DNA sequence: ATGAAAGCGCTAACAA
DNA sequence: TTGTTAGCGCTTTCAT
């Protein structure tokens, strides 16, 4: 094992730790009953009070905990569900995870998070989770390939997909409505008097990238008077958004609005504009997508369209629980409606610095900003 | 199942999905061999080429995947490790997770993330993971209680703790050096001519909160000439930091420096100062802890002390792998040295807006800013 | 090289 | 109410 030269390492004697696993057989022997009685006593099945007492004391004394793999093998379920997501660095996925966790833990499941991004592909993750580690999984794939669809079709484990799938795939799915979302943003900018809009996308070979690009194209088509085009950032991150926006803002003529494909790109765009000495929204209006907490925290506040991450997570979890309960039920596709949240970054006039807490859409202080959509 | 009124729901017919799990027995029958031969063929044990071919084809045709729980029960290991963390919304934990994942996946383990924050306590998580779901775990507890120490002592699963433990606990541990970290920050601020410093802590009943508070107190004790005090934010978040800083900055006399207990509180403090019409660093210098990506992204850049999250994660993973391999080895405590990263938020004079990409400490553009520590 | 059989730790059906 | 026993799916001796 290599350790950094900068580190200090101390070594202590290991106390005698109980690295051995105590089994139910040992508990039964210790309590003077059969393993069946021990199992029943431990699981609240019918057993005499005397037996229960003896077994519980024996279990306590020996530090018994039931082995999860043996229990799972016998019972055919693990009481574990997985949320598999590519990019846990994006706050919107953390928000979804929190919503999912709330629902599944209320139903007695533990949620484990599988990060598909780093070393393994989503296909590997689906295959692996399909081996019985979990009773069901919620998948947020960044790219939907034929290989992934085939893995999804083959896995015996119930799956719910967050994101768009081809119509041919009849799986439970929860989707955002990118078309409406982009229309809300473009309509808003046009209302605010912007006429030269650039869409700063993430990678367009990802599902969200393709959908938001198409949504933007459809939205601007409804406004023949404005000028619009798209560029791509390398990633859905602040740094990539910064780099892409820097290029866009140094062109001539400079656009008067940037529609970023997500909040991170939008925040990078605000920083780029500020570093170029431009004012937001005076010189340039900037909007994001996802309405993450950061959008309310940055100055100026980032106008963003809320894709309902919390609701999508919650619904996905509910669909998964329903499918586990009834494996052959028809597949559902749920589309969650977006809503626009207008903040300072896209208004026609700048407001003076006001003392108000950074707000998120769930906070009352934000309600003034919010506009209903659809 | 309840669905939001705003949502659209479509229902399709379910294609006949293979919800049944195919076992190795079925593969063996299909291939015309015994289960033992099938197992050997599948696992690369000695078997004739003919047998291997037959078995592999049968497995392919039937879509066989070995059941994880049965395999785990038989082999006594799961090939899974867990990272249990309270607050996955904090980017520093994501950074650690990424480092951990890199190490463990190189050794053939899958990493699962257990979020201890939301519904269950860390004690529950330790107990649950100790049931055999995983071969080992890395724990980042926010609070170290006697109950947690007792659960840690009892679990048969190898554990590495990220954070400080009482000296009586002889477990593998990886720690940051809060004392040195806070000293680096305070020394830097004094050098820059600041003389009235407020420490905006997170909850001081957490381990990081207590350590950073003590570190700050020790650091200011070395500078009798400056005035210093501490206040507490409700949480290690941007919003809580904003609220706490707002209070501090409205007092008279106003301090000329804020030392925030982490970057999120520091960013909230910058926003609060800006919203009050103060300039950073002109009117007030602000520093953070953790050197997360956000510190390089915000304007002005947030001076921060890097606690070595990447290294701590990597070392923790290495310690865990070493312990799994050799369960009775002596316990190691590794302390990772901090380093100061100076950015615009704490300099004596403000620099004009410069066009440079948002930088993180790993990027070359940041090297100019960085000062070696220790 | 292959097959029969034991057994990982647990729960549940059946008998007593 | 309790104990005996089968068996979840897999790997691995042990014979052959």
From TrEMBL, chains A, B:
<dbReference type="InterPro" id="IPR000843">
    <property type="entry name" value="HTH_LacI"/>
</dbReference>
<dbReference type="InterPro" id="IPR046335">
    <property type="entry name" value="LacI/GalR-like_sensor"/>
</dbReference>
<dbReference type="InterPro" id="IPR010982">
    <property type="entry name" value="Lambda_DNA-bd_dom_sf"/>
</dbReference>
<dbReference type="GO" id="GO:0003677">
    <property type="term" value="F:DNA binding"/>
</dbReference>
<dbReference type="Pfam" id="PF00356">
    <property type="entry name" value="LacI"/>
</dbReference>
<keyword id="KW-0804">Transcription</keyword>
<feature type="region of interest" description="Disordered">
    <location>
        <begin position="342"/>
        <end position="374"/>
    </location>
</feature>
<protein>
    <submittedName>
        <fullName>LacI family DNA-binding transcriptional regulator</fullName>
    </submittedName>
</protein>
<dbReference type="Pfam" id="PF13377">
    <property type="entry name" value="Peripla_BP_3"/>
</dbReference>
<keyword id="KW-0238">DNA-binding</keyword>
<feature type="domain" description="HTH lacI-type">
    <location>
        <begin position="22"/>
        <end position="75"/>
    </location>
</feature>
<keyword id="KW-0805">Transcription regulation</keyword>
<feature type="compositionally biased region" description="Basic and acidic residues">
    <location>
        <begin position="360"/>
        <end position="374"/>
    </location>
</feature>
<dbReference type="InterPro" id="IPR028082">
    <property type="entry name" value="Peripla_BP_I"/>
</dbReference>
């Amino acid at each position: 094992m290599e350790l950094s030269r900068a580190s200090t390492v101390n070594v202590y004697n290991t106390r005698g730790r109980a690295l051995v696993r105590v089994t139910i057989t040992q508990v039964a022997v210790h309590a003077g009953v059969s393993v069946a009685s021990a199992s029943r006593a431990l699981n609240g099945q019918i057993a005499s009070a005397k037996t229960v007492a003896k077994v519980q004391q024996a279990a306590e004394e020996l530090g018994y905990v039931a082995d999860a793999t043996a229990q799972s093998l016998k019972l055919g379920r693990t009481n574990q569900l997985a949320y598999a997501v590519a990019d846990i660095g994006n706050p919107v996925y953390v928000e979804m995870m929190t919503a999912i966790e709330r629902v599944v833990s209320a139903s007695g499941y533990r949620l484990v998070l599988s990060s598909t991004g780093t070393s393994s592909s989503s296909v590997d993750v689906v295959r692996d989770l399909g081996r019985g580690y979990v009773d069901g999984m919620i998948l947020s794939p960044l790219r939907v390939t034929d290989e992934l669809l085939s893995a999804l079709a083959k896995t015996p484990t119930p799956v719910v997909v967050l994101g768009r799938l081809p119509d041919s795939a009849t799986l439970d799915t929860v989707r955002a409505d990118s078309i409406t979302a982009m229309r809300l943003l473009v309509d808003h900018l046009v209302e605010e008097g912007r006429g030269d809009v650039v869409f700063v996308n993430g990678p367009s070979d990802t599902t969200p990238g393709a959908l938001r690009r198409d949504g933007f194209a459809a939205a601007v088509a409804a406004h023949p008077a404005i000028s619009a085009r798209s560029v791509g950032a390398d990633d859905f991150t602040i740094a990539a958004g910064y780099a892409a926006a820097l290029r866009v803002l140094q062109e001539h003529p400079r656009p008067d609005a940037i529609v970023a494909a997500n909040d991170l790109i939008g925040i990078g765009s605000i920083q780029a504009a500020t570093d170029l000495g431009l004012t937001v929204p005076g010189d340039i209006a900037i909007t994001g997508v996802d309405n993450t907490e950061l959008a309310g925290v940055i100055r100026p506040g980032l106008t963003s369209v809320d894709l309902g991450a919390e609701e999508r997570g919650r619904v996905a979890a509910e669909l998964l629980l329903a499918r586990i309960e009834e494996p052959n039920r028809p597949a559902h596709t749920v589309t969650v409606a977006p809503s626009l949240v207008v903040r300072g970054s896209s208004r026609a006039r700048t407001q003076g610095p006001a003392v108000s807490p950074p707000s998120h859409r769930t906070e009352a202080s934000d309600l003034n900003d919010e506009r209903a959509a659809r």
